[in-house]
Structures are given as C-alpha cells and as structure tokens.
UniProtKB/TrEMBL annotation:
It comes from the Eukaryota. This is EFR3A protein. InterPro entries: ARM-type_fold, EFR3_Homologs. One of its GO terms (cellular component) is plasma membrane. One of its GO terms (biological process) is protein localization to plasma membrane.
Length: 654
C-alpha cells in the first residue's frame, strides 16, 4: 500500500510540468485516485502494526504509516487543484463516504473535509460548500442521522470558510438549510400523524432523530451568521425574518401543508436561528440594528398566543439593543438594592437613537404592554420583559423617553388593578412585581432623590403588607395569592401625582404624565390571533397646560358620552378607516417613488396656497371675542378673524 501511495504521489507531482496535467483531473482518473487515498486514510495504526515493522526503518514516521502518507498525498493533490478541476477532485469523496456509510458516525467525514478546506486555495472554498449543499439535496430522503452527519460536515466547512470569504454562496447556504429545516419538520409531523394512536418506540426515536437534524441546522445557521461581517449579517437577519411564517402574510418558505403545529415548529426554529445570528451583533446605531422592514415582522410574533415565541422575540431584541453587554448584569427579575453595584456601561444617547425612539418608541412600548397581558406568561416572560425595559432605559432613554416609560409602567399597574382582561391572579401579581422591579431600577438610574424615595416607600410597604407584589415572593414555587386587589390601600401602588411632583422639581417636563398611556392600534394587529384592545378604537386626547379651553369655539357640536358611544359603535365607519389605512400603506409599499414624491409636492404647494389665501382675507371687525381666532405667523400679528367667515375651517384647525 505504501508503494502504491508513493506511485500516486509521483503521478500527482508529474502533472505540474507534464502533458498529463490536462487529463489526470478528468473524472475517470479522479474516481480511482481519490478513493484509494481515502481508503488508506481510514486504516488505523493498530491494523498496520500487525503487518510488521516497515521495511525501511530509516524513513520518517509519515513515510512509514500508510494513513499519514495517503493524507499528505491527498493534501498535495488538493493544493494543486484549480478553478476548473476542483469539483472533479471533491465529488469522489462523497461517493466514497456514501458507499462505506461514513456519514453516521461522521468523524472520518468531518476529518476529510477539514483536510479539504485547509488544503485548497481560499478562493475556491465556496465550490466545496456548494458541493456539500448539493449532496444534502441528493440525500434529503435518507435517514435523519445521515442528513445530520452531512449538515455537521457543512458546519465544519463553513466555520473554516467564514474566516475568509465564501463568495456568492452566503444566501444559498441559508436558503438550502431553511429548506431542509422545513423538510425535517414535515418528516417529523408525518411520522407523528402516521403513528397516531400507537405510540411506538421506533416512532419516538425517529422524531428525536429529526430533532437532531433540526438542531444541527440551527447550529450551522447561527455559527455561520455570527461569523459574517456586520453588513452581511444584517442582510441574513432580514433574509431569515422574511422566512418566518406569520399569520396573514405570505412567505417564500411554504408551510401551508404543515398545519398549525408544523407552522409553530418552523417559527420557533427560525427564531432560534435568528437568535444565534444576532448574538454578539454590535450596531453603531439602533436604527442599523432594527430597521423598520426588520422590526415590524420581528414584533409580529410577540402578539401571538405562544409564550415560547414571545420569549424568543424578546431575546432577539435584547441581542440587538444591548450594545454594552449589560444584559448579564440584569438577568433575573428582582428589586436591586443598589444599581451602581452593577457597574452599568452606557454612552450618551446619540441623535440617531433619539430619532429612532421618536419613530418607533411607541411600537416597542406597545408590544411590551400587550406582552404583559398574555394569560400564559410564566416567570421567564416577566424576566425578559423586565430586561427589555431596563435595556431600553440604558441604551435609548433621554428625558422624553423616561416620561414615556413611566407612563407605560403606570399603565401596566392599571392592567393588574382594573383587570379588564380577566387575567389570573398570578399574572396580575406578576405584572405588579414587574412594575416594582422596573421603577426601582429606573429611579436609581435617573437619580432623582424624591422619585427614589417614593419608589422605596412603596416597596417597603409592600414587603410588610403585600409581599406577593414583589418579584422575590411571587415567583417562588409556593406563594399565597390574594383573593382580590380591590381592597388594597393606595400606599401599595405607585401614584402618578407623586411621581409627577418628584420629577417636576428636577426639571422634567411632567405634563404628559397626566395623560394615561394607550397603545396605538396598527395594521399589524390583524396578524395576531389575540382579541383584546386591538379590536376596539382607542381615543387619547393630550391635554397640556397652555391650552385655554375657555377660548375654544363655542358653536361646535357638543361632545357627549352618547356621541362618543355612537361613534365607537359605528362599525361601518371603522371598516372604512381600516380600508383607508390599508390602501395608504399599500400605496407607499408598491407605488413608484417618483409618483409619491410628486403627489407630496403637489399637496405641499396646495397647502401653501391655501394658507396664503387665508392670510389675505378681507377682515371685518369681529362681532364678539368669543367667536374670533387670532392668526400668528412668525413675528407678524394678524387681526382677529370671525370664525364663521373663514373659507377654510379645516386649515384653521390644522
């Protein structure tokens, strides 16, 4: 065997400067040379030792051992391969591994492809990866363990190629893996359906084997994604998110035949893959980490009635928001005695982050709010919601955002007290504990003494009179729950007026604290299966100081409770509004940019002309002060204009 290997080695070396170079790479020659080398590489040393000592004891160890000699010859062969003949040298490897059933177990297969990846020229790495993906497609009907073995080989190859460049195969790798993830889930559910009513050992074993395939795919996706440069990683995040099945939308990954259970499995697998890809991702600005086309579909699963899906979404958000590695310090929901001991790392909020919160802050608040109202929440959900609030405070909170977060916390407290959604008592107490833990953290982060004092006083009162409102008690295995929350004293609750009073003295603009937080109703609510506040119309009026209500127009229609009730009950009008909203969104998604820009410019010109006409109106003396309106533009002050003479009342309101 040693003589044969040396002969092959001589032929390979001769191809460098010889006319044989053009023919030795043809498939009929490679199909003989490569399997011969692989066969000798398989032989373990103890088999060789039975033959006796080598005939030439002066030779080195690598020349005495057929396996090592064959490996060196194989490396030399691959190192001489060029762009045109690379595939001819790799394909016989797959045939050998198939013929000798070396994918399960796959130690030798992994070893072979490590040798291949390190021996070939770096720019040809994507050829090998394409060949592995192609072979995975060929063997897609094989046993789960064979497919898992091929995927693990792909993982090793990708791990080596990701350090350099893998060219155009980035999306192909992910697309193929996601396709095989769907196939694996399909096989698993098919086996379960075929064995319904007869739980056999073989079926359960096959299901667990499919889980091995799925875990191998997720591990490969995560490892590959986490080793890509940031610009490619953001594209992969968008690519995976586009494959997640969401109710009411269409995806390129067909799951229609899998049913609800199969769709849920796919959702969980893809979100787990996305969680691994986002791990360690550090964007310079939050808008780069969470662009609108990615944020909207990411938050949609957080409205679904599945606690595991909501947990994965929150963990992905944590990966993207936490740019200073503070999450480990916030693990677990608790009352932190001294936040300064955590040594939180933070930077000054950038203008880009402030702009992001103005655009998307309400969207984040809304999903936290609705996430707290789910009946199937467990301790982990509350822990992740607390971490979400804390990370938002650290990374994205200026004074305006702090006020919004306090409004959100008070609204969460009202969820537990009023209980319009008939939540179980554990959930109500869990929300109360979440609010206590978060306000304790927030008060210490902004370091307003009066605010800290109010929060500390409420927590101390709870520890004595209602410890089930604190996370250390409610999340114990055995906790005595109250029968109702209606009879509790105000000392146990965080009060808006006390908070406003404490923050007002420190320069915060606290006017908005008097406006209760109400989540926005958006079109994405149709994607969820929940029936809650999203099915009603929320009316929110900001009443701020400086608006003198006595100067309002007195000849408008009187707004009464009956009028509001009639407006809310008017289903036809509500449907028209929904349709109008849908058409506007569809237009901005599908219409050409030039058309949208031209229309906006036309409207802007029209608005300018109408305002000019208003200011040029012939003005008569006002009949009475109560029926007039003062128009001010810049430093110029115009006369009072009788309201009933205005030709454009809608512009006056604007």
């Amino acid at each position: 065997r040693i003589a044969g290997i040396r002969g092959i080695q001589g032929v390979v070396r001769k191809t460098v400067n010889d006319e044989l170079r053009a023919t030795i790479w043809e498939p009929q020659h490679m199909d003989k040379i490569v399997p011969s080398l692989l066969f000798n590489m398989q032989k373990i040393e103890d088999i060789d030792s039975r033959i006796g000592p080598p005939s030439s004891p002066t030779g080195g160890e690598k020349e005495e051992n057929p396996a090592l000699l064959a490996e060196n010859c194989f490396r030399e062969l691959l190192g001489r391969a060029t762009y045109g003949n690379m595939n001819n040298a790799v394909r016989p490897v797959f045939a050998h591994l198939d013929h000798h059933r070396l994918w399960d177990p796959n130690e030798f297969a992994v070893s072979c492809f490590k040798i291949i990846m390190y021996s070939i020229q770096a720019q040809y790495s994507h050829h090998v990866i394409q060949e592995i993906l192609g072979h995975l497609d060929v063997r897609k009907r094989d046993s789960p363990r064979v497919r898992a073995g091929i995927i693990q080989v792909l993982l090793e190859a990708v791990a080596i190629a990701a350090k350099g460049s893998i060219g155009p195969t980035v999306l192909e790798v992910f697309n193929t893996l996601l396709k095989h993830l769907r196939i694996s889930v399909d096989f698993e559910l098919g086996d379960r359906r075929s064995s319904a009513g007869s739980a056999t050992f073989s079926t359960s074993s096959k299901e667990s084997d499919e889980r091995i395939v799925q875990n191998a795919i997720i591990q490969t996706i995560g490892f590959f994604g986490s080793n890509l440069p940031d610009y490619q990683r953001s594209e992969i995040m968008m690519f995976i998110m586009g494959k997640v099945p969401v109710l009411g939308t269409s995806q390129s990954l067909d799951t229609s035949h899998l049913g609800d259970l199969g769709t849920r499995r796919i959702q969980i697998m893809l979100l787990r893959s996305l969680l691994m890809v986002t791990s360690g991702y550090k964007a310079t600005t939050i808008s780069n980490a969470l662009p609108a086309p990615f944020l909207d579909p990411l938050l949609s699963p957080s409205l679904m009635e599945d606690s595991e899906l909501r947990q994965l979404v929150l963990e992905i958000l944590h990966n993207l928001i936490d740019r200073h590695d503070n999450r480990a310090k916030l693990r677990g929901i608790r009352i932190i005695p001294d936040v300064s001991d955590l040594k939180i790392k933070r930077d000054k909020i950038s203008r880009q982050d402030v702009s992001f919160m103005k655009k998307h802050g309400q969207q984040l608040y809304r999903h936290i709010y609705l996430g707290c109202k789910e009946e199937d929440n467990v301790q982990k959900n509350f822990e992740l919601l607390f971490t979400s609030l804390a990370l938002t405070t650290i990374e994205l909170a200026n004074e305006e955002v702090v006020i919004d977060l306090i409004r959100l916390a008070i609204a969460l407290q009202d969820i537990a007290i009023i209980n319009e959604d008939n939540l179980p008592m554990f959930n109500r107490c869990g929300v109360m504990a979440l609010v206590a833990a978060y306000l304790n953290f927030l008060s210490q982060m902004i370091a307003v003494p009066a605010f800290c004092q109010h929060v500390s006083k409420v927590i101390e009162t709870r520890s004595v009179e209602a410890s089930y409102f604190l996370p250390e008690t409610i999340f114990k295995d055995k906790c005595d729950l109250p029968k109702s929350l209606e009879k509790h004293e105000k000392d146990l609750f965080f009060l808006t007026n006390k908070i406003a009073e404490s923050l007002g003295g420190s320069g915060y603009s606290v006017e908005r604290l008097s406006v209760p937080y109400v989540p926005q109703v958006t079109d994405e609510d149709r994607l969820s299966r929940r029936k809650s506040i999203v099915d009603t119309v929320s009316l929110q009026v900001d009443i701020l100081p400086g608006n003198n209500t006595e100067d309002k127009i007195d000849n408008t229609e009187e707004i009464t409770f009956e009028a509001l009730k009639k407006a809310i009950d008017n289903n036809g009008l509500e449907e028209q509004e929904k349709e109008k909203r849908r058409l506007v969104i569809e237009k901005f998604q599908k219409a050409p940019f030039e058309e949208i820009a031209a229309q906006c410019e036309t409207k802007a010109n029209l608005l300018h002309d109408r305002l000019a006409q208003i200011l040029e109106l012939t003005i008569r003396p006002p009949p009475s002060p109560s029926g007039t309106m003062t128009i001010t533009a810049g430093h110029a002050h115009y006369h009072s204009v009788p309201v009933y003479e205005m030709k454009f009342p809608d512009l006056c309101v604007y």
